[in-house]
Specification:
Chains A, B, C, D: Belongs to the MIP/aquaporin (TC 1.A.8) family. Chains A, B, C, D: It is a multi-pass membrane protein. Chains A, B, C, D: InterPro entries: Aquaporin-like (IPR023271), MIP (IPR000425), MIP/Aquaporin (IPR050363), MIP_CS (IPR022357). Four copies of one chain form a homotetramer. By secondary structure, chain A is an all-alpha fold. Chain A has 13 helices and no strands. Chain A has a single domain (about 35-300), classed as Glycerol uptake facilitator protein, CATH 1.20.1080.10. Chain A has helices spanning about 10-20, 30-65, 80-100, 110-115, 125-145, 150-155, 165, 180-200, 215-230, 240-255, 255-260, 265-290, 305-310. The interface between A and B is large, with 53 and 65 residues.
Chain lengths: ~300, ~300, ~300, ~300
Amino acid sequence: MSHDSASNKEEHITEHIDDYAGHDHITIHPNAWSKYRLMMREYVAEFLGVCILIIFGTGVDCQVVLSSVTGVASSQKGSYLSINIGWAVGTAMGVWVSGGISGGHINPAVTIALATYRGFPWKKVPGYIAAQVLGGLVGAALVYANYYHAISIFEGGDDVRTLATAGLFSTYALDYMTAVSAFFSEFLATAVLVVVVLAIGDRKNCPPPAGLAPLVLFVLILGIGACLGMETGYAINPARDLGPRILTAMVGYGSQVFTFRKSLTPHRLWCPVISPILGAQAGAIFYDAFIYLGDESPFNKPCVSSFCSLI
Amino acid sequence: MSHDSASNKEEHITEHIDDYAGHDHITIHPNAWSKYRLMMREYVAEFLGVCILIIFGTGVDCQVVLSSVTGVASSQKGSYLSINIGWAVGTAMGVWVSGGISGGHINPAVTIALATYRGFPWKKVPGYIAAQVLGGLVGAALVYANYYHAISIFEGGDDVRTLATAGLFSTYALDYMTAVSAFFSEFLATAVLVVVVLAIGDRKNCPPPAGLAPLVLFVLILGIGACLGMETGYAINPARDLGPRILTAMVGYGSQVFTFRKSLTPHRLWCPVISPILGAQAGAIFYDAFIYLGDESPFNKPCVSSFCSLI
Amino acid sequence: MSHDSASNKEEHITEHIDDYAGHDHITIHPNAWSKYRLMMREYVAEFLGVCILIIFGTGVDCQVVLSSVTGVASSQKGSYLSINIGWAVGTAMGVWVSGGISGGHINPAVTIALATYRGFPWKKVPGYIAAQVLGGLVGAALVYANYYHAISIFEGGDDVRTLATAGLFSTYALDYMTAVSAFFSEFLATAVLVVVVLAIGDRKNCPPPAGLAPLVLFVLILGIGACLGMETGYAINPARDLGPRILTAMVGYGSQVFTFRKSLTPHRLWCPVISPILGAQAGAIFYDAFIYLGDESPFNKPCVSSFCSLI
Amino acid sequence: MSHDSASNKEEHITEHIDDYAGHDHITIHPNAWSKYRLMMREYVAEFLGVCILIIFGTGVDCQVVLSSVTGVASSQKGSYLSINIGWAVGTAMGVWVSGGISGGHINPAVTIALATYRGFPWKKVPGYIAAQVLGGLVGAALVYANYYHAISIFEGGDDVRTLATAGLFSTYALDYMTAVSAFFSEFLATAVLVVVVLAIGDRKNCPPPAGLAPLVLFVLILGIGACLGMETGYAINPARDLGPRILTAMVGYGSQVFTFRKSLTPHRLWCPVISPILGAQAGAIFYDAFIYLGDESPFNKPCVSSFCSLI
């Protein structure tokens, strides 16, 4: 989740060309395909990053929960801690495969926060988010295919699909959580996530060595799941929730995955989508207001700007 | 928990100015707010570090213990190992967000030890400690709000608050622990903590690469919790205990959080507050007496000083 | 699993000689043995890497499963998570002992993928694979010897050897898995494995610092086992499965380890051998088609080649 | 466990002086004490390293096992995996506090192997081993004091001390293990340990960055405990076993800690003391014979030496 990705495509290509010049093992556009790849590359990286995140994350949900039924496995294959570890591994691997290409956001809430506070170009934001959600959908499809037989045994038939296993793919808050509580839980966890993401990307703070940010994220997501995860399932990432949720709607769970808790209509959007986006903003505002010195942040613009004149 | 932070504010600002000069992306005081931020920055970092430590730490306490009741969750969401991991993550993240700003002490016992043996300026000590305790209080408040409904289910009502859940926020020694045993347990664990903190900050020893000290602390706190944690709840940090304890007193637990084990009056202060401070001193004295070569340590002052003349 | 190993033996030796020249502590061929060692060195490293992988991996299988019987141990010594950790440690240690010598493939599927897409010399491939399978066989033999008495207690006698303990050494898919499902599960997991391996070896992406790739692999294999492991036992490595399977056939389990699920004849080869090889190819194709810029990849050959003319 | 420590004391001091010259914060012998410290420093570091290893290791043994009794704690505070983690943390922390001073051997088997194959000066070996055993004894004493009340509750009285709790401090093989099996188990685990230690200290292989060797050892010891630990308690370190064993004899367990399994008299020495030493030799011989190129190894001496003439 570094935020050093090129601020516009032209610069980006130029940078690559410079790199090429300095290293004789890489040539520019060696063939017709290369041009298309260069255009898609950042978006494919975000797609791939979320896809891998979801393969690990929904994979561990399936393995641990489904194996609690003896027809699926002779003994349970993991515990709640395994689930926390699985999502942490997914996050780390998602960023390791995409970090150097797209910045490794793999989370729309992070992408929007970086656009707002770190100069990530807004024109790339829609493409990033679309790629992220699509990655979540495809990752969930691969895991659904992988655990198809086990899901059917758990549900009691190939044509039985209930929220009991829909919950393996997208998040559903505990029954007693009010809309406000669910919102707060996701808001708090995402704010913590973004404060850490900004801190480890701030070279005036205490950043890990190049290439090890994903290790920090492993530890971070392990902790968020273990410490703040049970109430809402720690979406903290709209793509992590929406992509798999759309997949479940497509493969037979139907509209129930969207009408869950209809009496709390806005819940589904507020809890796993709006709340992480706002929580990310809150985390970034706190970090920039009190800690950050870099001039990409609106908090560090000269006072001639309208923003600063408010202070 | 590096101890390379500037030894006085004037130097600190100068250093920043030098940095600014060498890097055209940062300007000094771009707006009115910047000046205030620079004054508060180190203290806010300590506040933020402890706040994040406590969000993870008391968060995992709440999640694991509260979910053992079926009204809260269908199955327990974690184990004692999860609790050890949660506190370890909190420590690592607390230092990752503050390490480059304030040195990442996030522990009054460490701050006092660094002031005594590593030249950390004493005039900053009161501000650091106040920020640390306040961070603990605010972190606990956020977690209390987050788990409010679950706590009420666990306790049996919104207006029932007993030591059963107060213990999720601050530490209470096991019943059979005497005052001496409780003191010794915290003393030993904090001495080990400080020996490791000083070793990984000693460039003549075997320090991890820049930016990875928090990873070492993750492993360290994981171990302290797993190995030395059960008797007193491993406060090993006065701010970690006092901040959340004050919060519990404020939100409805009342004075019982301070009068616990009244017959052992000094226990509350000795076990989670005085003992870590003295244990940190003991660890630092051992390390400096036998290992450390740097001249900030009183053990390495020339013999003209009164301290050395004792030897 | 770096893929920077020398592309042919002559270059390799020259490189060593250059190194020797620059460092006076090493001399070329100081004695008669040195020449033989230099010829065998890469192959021995692969042998050693897989041997260590299998010592940890089948070791943890034995310890956790055998200790579930009270005659073996008073309480179970580990859990399914321990098994995931054991295989992860084995992978990391296998690469740490071989990475700088042979590239640390320790997996025929990886070796073949690197030969296809990263210019690893094909003439070394048979030797690498033979060394890897032999390493698996020897590692399993050491673990079999180590747990001999416990296996006998578990089975009920020194001369009783059934699939119940053969499954501690090589992988057997769950009963309800069809051949297609088992193939898909191994295919998916190996594709993810290879995408990550290529990403952390791609210096245009987000590689970890030199010497820490095994740490990434530790996290990766921990996740693959926790998230995608239960259905087929996550071979994802033909040598990991074949070596120990041959050993079990040799030490008394007989031909049943090969005739398992005879009605699904091709299963044994498809699931733990062919599927990982093809999954590795799929992962490499995806990564190279969409992300990789280095010119060793067939995707980056100039268009004069027949391959590119297809695009 | 780096093996770059100075090969004799004179060189060592000279190196320090050079360092001092280049860094104006450190002065040589600023006071009377400094001279004594310099003489003791390496030995104290080994003492401290083993002491910290044993504080964590026997600490986690005590916490997990004692808390299984409800009089000690309301629920068990950890699992077998916690025990594996505790010993892994202890090893990592023991090396982090001593690595830059003494090389961080913290294991007589490693010290002897480095003396044999890496030129570690034999004249330091007795002092290192004495310091290591003493560190084990003192660490065990601190943990015994820490868990004194819990041990008494577990045993049923302050004056009851049986092998049930002696086993928390030193290792006792499972009942059905023969002397040969126990020997083999420790031999195998220590050989693996030393192969990894030599590999990560071999700059021609795949060493981790400076200061991260202890992290590798954390992963390694976690794996050895999880995969090869249950049969003999994975001493793999004579000081780890002998120091705490002597302590238990001293504090009231009496001679039973030495006469355990008297019918297998040599067991106690062979299993946790001789076997690790020989296993370390075997690991080093394998690594040097097939992988290592550095000229400190006897395998790389010129053929004029009598050793090489055997080949």
